[in-house]
Amino acid sequence: MIERTIFNEEHELFQQSVNKFFEKEIVPNHDQWEIDGHVSREVWLKAGELGLLCTGTAEEYGGSGVDFTYSTIMMEELARTGCSGPGFALHSDIVAPYIIHQGTEELKKQWLPKMAKGEVIGAIAMTEPGTGSDLQAVKMTAKKDGDDYIINGSKTFITNGYMCDLVIVVAKTGEGEISLILVEADREGFTKDKPLKKIGMKAQDTCQMYFDNVRVPQSNLLGQEGQGFIYLMMELPQERLLVAIIAIATAEEAVKRTLQYVQEREAFGRTIAKFQNTRFKLAEMATEVQMGRVFIDKCIELHIKQQLDVPTAAMAKYAMTDLQCKVVDECLQLHGGYGYMWEYWIARAYADARAQRIYAGTNEIMKEIISRAILE
Ligand SMILES: Cc1cc2nc3c(=O)[nH]c(=O)nc-3n(C[C@H](O)[C@H](O)[C@H](O)COP(=O)(O)OP(=O)(O)OC[C@H]3O[C@@H](n4cnc5c(N)ncnc54)[C@H](O)[C@@H]3O)c2cc1C
Predict the structure, then answer these.
(1) Whole-model pTM above 0.90?
(2) DSSP for 121-190?
(3) Residues 160 and 106 in one domain
(4) How far is the CA of 193 from the centre of ligand 1 (A)?
(5) Which one of the listed residues 77, 225, 239, 253 is annotated catalytic?
(6) Ligand 1 centre from 361 Cα, in Å?
(7) Which of 14, 148, 260, 275 is the most core-located residue (most Cβ within 10 A)?
(8) Distance of CA 359 from the midpoint of ligand 1 (Å)
């Protein structure tokens, strides 16, 4: 097996403490959170206290100012637990970067330290009931009124949506122009539904939200008015890489757990592992997962050097999430009936995996991006 080379000793120490935290604070509570439809506030605060949130945010804004390898570790460790409830990655590595890169000094000082402490939970609302893939078609409007914007419309499928204190909304500020605007959850006219009932990721508080004449100051605008689409294009490669990292880590863990299971479970007087079908399936999966791992570690290295381009990030997202779904399906099959039982890691992994091919841009949209890059 090819040894990974992206981690040094410091990374390994961080990995151990993250793993300890997840095993102690997340794994034992996750069943209850699945019933509740969301995680606890407390776990956000505890993660913040330990410096596990917003690791990539500069120290002057409350983060640790470390490179993307630390975010990678957070996601990989969470994927291995099979606990998809905490939306830490979206908060730290998707929402915070918009504020870091496009926020004014005032906005950075106001929000980033609280986000790093877990006191403020972040979300980003692009998708609407009427449009997801076609972002240019959003209907939400932000109209100027004196020094304010007045926001109207609704958003759906928003990760961290129910618990969020701060949400970046994608809204039309003119004909064919979209902008990114921060909205605090306590603004008058902003309401959220209960978390949506999903086939997986049951502890993740994905929700629908409504904006009825919500007034926010124009100083809540991120970057320049009308440039929202460009900012989204700048940040989406990181979001897609994050999804790919979770995908490959989940696939690796699925193979690891299945290797163990098939060597314990017996049928026809021998372990399942003795059947040629089992051996070949696992050999195929181990090979594909190894190829994926090498590709993703290379993408992580490129991303740290700011050299990961848009089509390569799209390739990573589509290929790894397709692989994840294939691997969890094959691994579930090797678990037989137990694989279909919710208490089994592989059952949840199977249900959780499906959304990965849909969000952060569907895999069909990824193929559009790739084909445009190679054909034109
Ligand atoms: C669990 C979960 C969490 C999410 N979290 C967030 C979040 O935090 N923030 C947020 O803004 N959104 C979020 N989303 C929404 C997600 O990003 C959208 O669902 C996704 O972008 C697809 O949009 P849609 O659902 O409107 O599907 P549609 O755009 O209606 O697509 C339907 C089908 O048509 C295909 N299609 C569309 N256009 C094309 C095309 N040009 N070529 C080929 N095929 C095409 C799609 O690939 C898909 O198969 C989340 C979704 C889920 C399921």
Answers:
(1) yes
(2) -EEEE--BTTBSS-GGG---EEEEETTEEEEEEEEEEETTTTT-SEEEEEEEEETTEEEEEEEETTSTTE
(3) no
(4) 20
(5) 239
(6) 6
(7) 14
(8) 6
Decide if 300 is inside a domain.
yes
Q: How far is it, in rounded angstroms, from Cα 321 to Cα 335?
A: 21
Same domain? For 322 and 334 the reply is: yes
Tell me how far the alpha carbon of residue 367 lies from the centroid of ligand 1, in angstroms: 14
Domain count for the chain, please give it. Answer: 3
Task: Tell which atom from ligand 1 comes closest to the C-alpha of 126.
Answer: 11
pLDDT at 376: 66
CA distance 234 to 310: 9
Q: What is the mean pLDDT of the chain?
A: 97
Is any ligand 1 atom within 6 A of the Cβ of residue 126?
yes
Q: Which domain holds residue 134?
A: 123-226
Q: Whose CA is nearest to atom 45 of ligand 1?
A: 364
97-122 per-position pLDDT tens digit: 999 999 999 999 999 999 999 999 99
pLDDT value of residue 103: 98
Is 86's C-beta closer than 6 angstroms to any atom of ligand 1? no
- Tell me the C-alpha distance between 242 and 207, whole Å: 21
> How remote is the C-alpha of 236 from its chain's centroid?
11
Residue 2 lies in a domain: no
CB 179 within 8 A of CB 230: no
Same domain, 88 and 192: no
- Catalytic status, residue 239: yes
Q: How confident is the model at residue 351 (pLDDT cuts 50, 70, 90)?
A: very high
Dig out the tokens for 200 from the structure.
């997986």
Of the three residues 100, 120, 140, the one that is the final residue of a domain is 120
Q: Which tens digit of pLDDT belongs to each residue from 313-348?
A: 999 999 999 999 999 999 999 999 999 999 999 999
pLDDT, tens digit, for every residue of 11-60? 999 999 999 999 999 999 999 999 999 999 999 999 999 999 999 999 99
Q: Does the residue 166 lie in any domain?
A: yes
The whole-number pLDDT of residue 1 equals: 87
Is residue 4 in a domain? no
